[in-house]
Amino acid sequence: MAIACIYVLDCIFEPFIENHFPVKIALIGYGKMGRAIESMALQRGHEIICRVDLHNRAAWLKPEKLSAADVAIEFTTPESAVDNLLACFNAGVPVVCGTTGWLQRWPEVEKLCREKNQTLVYASNFSLGVNLFFAVNKYLAQLMAAYPQYDVQIREVHHTQKKDAPSGTAITLAEQILQRIERKKQWVNRPAMQPEELAILSERVDPVPGIHEVRYSSAIDEIEIKHTAHSREGFALGAVLAAEWVEGKKGIFSMEDVLGLK
Ligand SMILES: NC(=O)C1=CN([C@@H]2O[C@H](COP(=O)(O)OP(=O)(O)OC[C@H]3O[C@@H](n4cnc5c(N)ncnc54)[C@H](O)[C@@H]3O)[C@@H](O)[C@H]2O)C=CC1
Ligand SMILES: O=C(O)C1=N[C@H](C(=O)O)C[C@H](O)C1
Description:
This protein is an alpha/beta fold and 262 residues long. It has helices at residues 2-17, 32-43, 57-60, 63-66, 81-91, 106-115, 128-144, 168-178, 233-246, 255-259, and strands at 24-28, 47-52, 71-74, 95-97, 119-122, 151-158, 186-188, 197-204, 211-217, 222-228, 251-253. It has two domains: 2-126 and 233-259, 3-Layer(aba) Sandwich (Rossmann fold), CATH 3.40.50; 128-228, Dihydrodipicolinate Reductase, domain 2, CATH 3.30.360.10. α2 crosses α9 (233-246) and α7 runs parallel beside α8.
């Protein structure tokens, strides 16, 4: 079993880790993630053509400036992500976006991206480990659908500077569960008060980069799956892999597309 798992992981990661061409990257957002992505991109031989932040965004987010990039990587804030994505579409630059907390505006962004024949890779979590965790979450939810004696809840823990709650990753986990467990009807960001509510409990503790747990509890026992990020390196590597992968593609993609997990 262990050997089979290692073989599967090798097959998933191996094509991405070494075979890539250098790309010119516009970094939009130069905070904790922007800096981690810069370091990963430079290690992998890429060029950063601009580091866009609040102070210089007006100068850089113009088609004539941005179009010098092969790809943009956008990790900013829930309030600014959509404007940044539209700037990339207008410049004709494919964009890898990891910003969370703006998905209420997804339909608008999706429509514009398709109308303008542009390219977006979006993931609530770019780490390879979390994308495998998503696959396990879907499989477990499918099994647990038949066992109503188990209640399910999600817990996420992040650093105190995080602007959104629940985390984008926790929302993805919740949506995967809601699609498979009919007795759960909607997620709530507090303890459940009705059996059909799926609770997502958010905690903010420094300096946690990200913990996600899904727990099924019955009167008799518990089943729990958990992902713990030890640093931001996994998110940064995934975002850079997505930027390498997206070259020459048109449309809207997820990290599952990048990893071939669909
Ligand atoms: N999808 C994923 O794998 C991951 C997603 N995230 C998400 O990425 C986002 C950024 O996270 P951090 O880097 O930790 O935040 P941060 O607060 O350290 O950095 C955000 C940066 O965006 C800049 N910014 C704000 N408004 C801007 C604008 N209008 N134009 C350009 N830059 C602007 C800020 O000045 C700041 O430097 C958050 O939404 C977070 O949830 C974080 C880690 C992994
Ligand atoms: O803000 C963060 O730090 C993180 N945000 C993402 C999310 O909201 O899920 C991904 C990761 O957990 C770190």
